From TrEMBL:
Natural source organism: Deinococcus xinjiangensis
Superkingdom per UniProt: Bacteria
Residues in the signal sequence: 1-29
Protein's recorded name: TRAP transporter substrate-binding protein
Keyword hit for Signal: yes
Keyword Signal: yes
InterPro entries reported in the protein's UniProt record: TRAP_TAXI
Keyword annotations: Signal
Length: 306
């Protein structure tokens, strides 16, 4: 009987020690329950890339997607402590820092520099005609510089891009903001605006399916020196809408706050390390977004999370 009692006491004591050790374990031993990541609507480049990253970095189950309208909302959510990570256009981030002088941007770090999304300038297809004397004339917009005094519709992070291009090029275009792509394109169809500007990675399905008899992609005839530091030169290739259209592209980066807590830092650094090591898998796996072929994980002048 004495031996049985002693055994019970020893078991109880061991259980107590184990419980105490569990309760007092350092926070860095556990990953955060969930961290929300602001992407963009379903089917967007950001949403698809987040999906692909989750497939190759399977230990990142602590990251939970929050679909949004795009870069501006994503940045606001991140700065407002409503999400922990966000996919953001670099020009949106730079504009908030350099133009709006928001001091909170100093605490943001890039977890991953990603792809470049092209600027698509869309208008109704210009109409060419001859008068009775054989003189050829064109009705409609054929390039960016012809938007002087005209109305340009856009939405989301593209609003920032449109305003930066307006300031950098010196073309006094009237920029109208809409709720989303459908509202903007409906306004173009109705003749309420003269052109649409959208920042999206090509090939964008909704651009590819535009009626080529009604719409055209227009060149951004802006000097590279004028947009230096914000954009890089690019070319749009949609055979039905006009292949070889000169434009610019802006980088998209995955941004996070400069967390100090060990469990969050450890989880995010492990995710970052996995992504950096899995670039070939991201580029070569069938069904993954084609924009992975543009990613190097090297370009971007925003400070790293490390």
């Amino acid at each position: 009987m004495r031996q049985t009692t002693a055994t019970k006491l020893a078991t109880t004591f061991a259980t107590t020690l184990l419980l105490f050790a569990t309760l007092t374990a350092p926070a860095s031993a556990t990953a955060p329950a969930f961290l929300d990541v602001a992407t963009s609507p379903k089917g967007s480049t950001a949403a698809d890339m987040f999906r692909d990253l989750g497939k190759v970095c399977k230990g990142a189950s602590f990251l939970r997607q929050r679909q949004t309208s795009g870069s501006v909302e994503n940045l606001d959510l991140l700065l407002g402590n409503q999400v922990s990570l966000a996919f953001v256009q670099l020009d949106v981030l730079k504009a908030r820092d350099q133009i709006d002088h928001d001091p909170r941007t100093a605490e943001l770090k890039q977890l991953l520099p990603l792809n470049f999304d092209e600027i698509h300038l869309i208008a109704k297809r210009p109409v060419t005609s001859k008068n009775i004397f054989g003189k050829v004339s064109t009705t409609g917009i054929t390039k960016w510089s012809e938007l002087k005094g005209k109305k340009l519709g856009t939405w989301g992070g593209s609003v920032v891009t449109a305003n930066v291009l307006k300031a950098k090029s010196g073309v006094p275009v009237n920029i109208l903001e809409y709720k989303g792509r459908d509202d903007t394109m409906n306004a173009l169809n109705a003749g309420q605006i003269d052109a649409v500007l959208s920042v999206v990675g090509q090939p964008a399905d909704w651009v590819r399916t535009l009626d080529a008899s009604k719409f055209a992609l227009l060149p951004l005839d802006i000097s590279p020196a004028a947009v230096n530091g914000f954009y890089k030169q690019a070319t749009l290739r949609y055979p039905q809408l006009g292949s070889g259209i000169p434009t610019y592209a802006v980088q998209r980066i995955l941004v996070t706050r400069n967390f100090k807590t060990p469990e969050r830092r450890s989880a995010l650094l492990n995710y970052q390390k996995c992504a950096l090591s899995k670039l070939p898998d991201l580029q070569e796996t069938e069904g993954f977004h084609p924009k992975w072929s543009d990613v190097t994980f090297k370009e971007s002048d925003w400070p790293w999370f490390k």
